[in-house]
Amino acid sequence: MWRVVLSMAGIPGLLLLLLMLLLLLCAVGQVSPSGAHWKPTWPAYRLPVILPQSTLHLAKPDFGAEAKLEVSSSCGPQCHKGTPLPTYEEVKQYLSYETLYANGSRTETQVGIYVLGSGGSESLGKSRRKRQIYGYDSRFSIFGKDFLLNYPFSTSVKLSTGCTGTLVSEKHVLTAAHCIHDGKTYVKGTQKLRVGFLKPKVKDGRGANNSSTAVPEKMKFQWIRVKRTHVPKGWIKGNANDIGMDYDYALLELKKLHKRKFMKIGVSPPAKQLPGGRIHFSGYDNDRLGNLVYRFCDVKDETYDLLYQQCDAQPGASGSGVYVRMWKRQQQKWERKIIGIFSGHQWVDMNGSPQDFNVAVRITPLKYAQICYWIKGNYLDCREG
């Protein structure tokens, strides 16, 4: 019998460290890469549970921030790796979240973090110029409705603030937090935020749609309003130079169903377990207006919360879902899942020599539990990573 014990007690830093390592590394049922018939397989994790504890109504925001299509930071892999491990209470605060509604009202929700127990139960509470094109531009513009309207490219959508998002359910879009919030307040236009879906622009010789004579022309965006947004407090309280970069993600709920195939989210495996060590994502880069741009590249480094890579990208691609394709053992099939959110650009001091990376926020077990709860509204539907 699965059940959850709710406890508000603190947790020692060492125990939290062991938990994070367990959630990240102790995947069960792995196939060894040295095996003769090895396939890159989605790992199975024992996932935590994120549950709301209390909700507070906040004053309406002023929506005064200027929209920024990227986030920059000088804190690189070693800087992030050297950051002290957060306490249990700090993690709870970072994973608490703010919800903005279409009418401008706003709430803050405090959460608790728990683990599921079998038979018994356990509680965590107890225990220079930016260069984003690297050498030859390896991006591919996707043309033609046969590609743009088919999976996986059809899961990429455009935000009215200028960023990209990815469909992760029948009515939810995953994107970067900085696309709607600058860390202090919401950006202009967020109260009337819209999500754009590419569709064929059809013309008829008689000035009306007719299936027998219609001829596809250019693509256009069909827009759907956003009902509400969720942003983690780790982003709102932080900034791009410290812990905030780790929480640069947000979830948007649409006012109506989009009726397209979406991509599931998944826990980010260690980089060495990614197929070919590569990641993929598509976005609406602002130097190719109106085009969906696809790219893939190798992961260069990683921390618990971030992936560092040199995928060619320009502002506008921020918020794109970073995905990989791996073997799903239970269903005996290949499946793509989003394992991160493309955030932006960083200059990094590598032994006194500046080097730049593009950065993606990893979906860790804790973030998976949080985002999945935002989507499903029921932790029992979020037990499989």
What does this structure look like?
The strands form three sheets. Strands 3, 7, 14, 15, 16, 17, 18, 19 and 20 form a nine-stranded mixed β-sheet that branches. Strands 8-9-10-13-12-11 form a six-stranded antiparallel beta barrel. It has helices spanning 13-25, 77-81, 88-95, 145-148, 233-237, 365-376, and strands at residues 2-3, 48-58, 72-73, 97-101, 106-115, 117-118, 140-142, 156-159, 164-167, 172-175, 194-203, 215-232, 250-254, 264-265, 278-283, 292-302, 306-309, 321-328, 333-350, 353-362. It has 385 residues and is mainly beta. The longest helix is centred in the N-terminal third of the chain and has 13 residues, at 13-25.
Summarize this, please?
With 385 residues, the chain is mainly β. It has helices at 13-25, 77-81, 88-95, 145-148, 233-237, 365-376; strands spanning 2-3, 48-58, 72-73, 97-101, 106-115, 117-118, 140-142, 156-159, 164-167, 172-175, 194-203, 215-232, 250-254, 264-265, 278-283, 292-302, 306-309, 321-328, 333-350, 353-362. The chain is 12% helix and 36% strand.
